[in-house]
Design a protein that fits this description.
7-stranded parallel sheet; 10 helices; 7 strands; alpha/beta; 248 residues; Rossmann fold
């Protein structure tokens, strides 16, 4: 797999991930918006990202314009049974390969996670999103216990999306996940009109207004992912503790 860091159970210093899967078992959490934003950010930095649209809604592929400002970022939407092969083919020419999965658990989501170096779980500050984020974390834990991934477990980061400054629910969700030890980023993707406005043309704020607040949101998420020690590879004992701390 493509993760490069200093080794061990924690990411320390700077890391890089060749394959990133965005996954959650609930739709509407901002997966596609964040996936496109990450790709646009890395393109601006001179990387060669690629997007795989594995979400049946086809949000990324429907808005893709190969002649537009993000035309250099291929968006591939293929048959479900070829997802693993598509990831391998793209990673030979592009980095990172970013996979936008369905808003529910299916074979494609599992295949993407098995191939991923990093899983990002976006969630809105809501009880339903919290439950689904924990369920997705459980799925990743199950995959990490398989022979295929036990020696090279998937790193995981949760990201709060569509947050509004000063709301009680956002503070509550952050506190609950933090106290339970889940790998929640400090950086967020707040509720901003810039995201849907850019999405109309299949773009990201990082392209339309690279110095704007929304572009800075994405940059902060990327910086924390690549430089933070916040993402643990959870042990089974830690997971059992967290199940008690965050009730289903």
């Amino acid at each position: 797999m493509g993760v490069r860091d200093s080794g061990g159970a924690h990411m320390t210093g700077s890391a890089w991930f060749d394959v990133i899967a965005l996954a959650t078992s609930k739709g509407g959490a901002g997966k596609s918006t964040l996936a496109r934003g990450l790709a646009a950010h890395w393109l601006a930095l001179g990387r060669k990202p690629a997007l795989i649209d594995a979400d049946p809604t086809g949000t990324l592929s429907k808005r893709y314009n190969p002649q537009g400002p993000l035309g250099a970022v291929p968006v591939v939407a293929g048959p479900e049974e070829r997802d693993s092969q598509t990831i391998e083919e793209l990673r030979a020419r592009h980095t990172p390969v970013i996979v936008d999965t369905a808003g529910f658990r299916n074979r494609t989501t599992i295949s993407a996670l098995v191939a991923a170096d990093l899983a990002i779980i976006p969630l809105k500050p809501a009880a339903e999103d919290l439950d689904c984020a924990v369920a997705t974390f459980d799925l990743i834990r199950e995959i990490n216990e398989t022979p295929e991934r036990s020696e090279n477990p998937i790193r995981t980061a949760m990201v709060l999306t569509m947050t509004m400054r000063g709301t009680v629910i956002a503070r509550h969700v952050r506190s609950q996940l933090g106290e339970a030890g889940y790998p929640l980023l400090k950086a967020e993707m707040p509720h901003r009109v810039a995201y849907p406005e850019a999405g109309i043309e299949g773009l990201s704020p990082s392209v339309i207004d690279p110095d704007g607040a929304a572009a800075r949101d994405i940059a902060a998420i990327v910086h924390e992912i690549l430089n933070s020690t916040n993402h643990e590879i959870m042990t089974s004992s830690a997971h059992e503790f967290m199940k008690k701390a965050v009730p289903a």
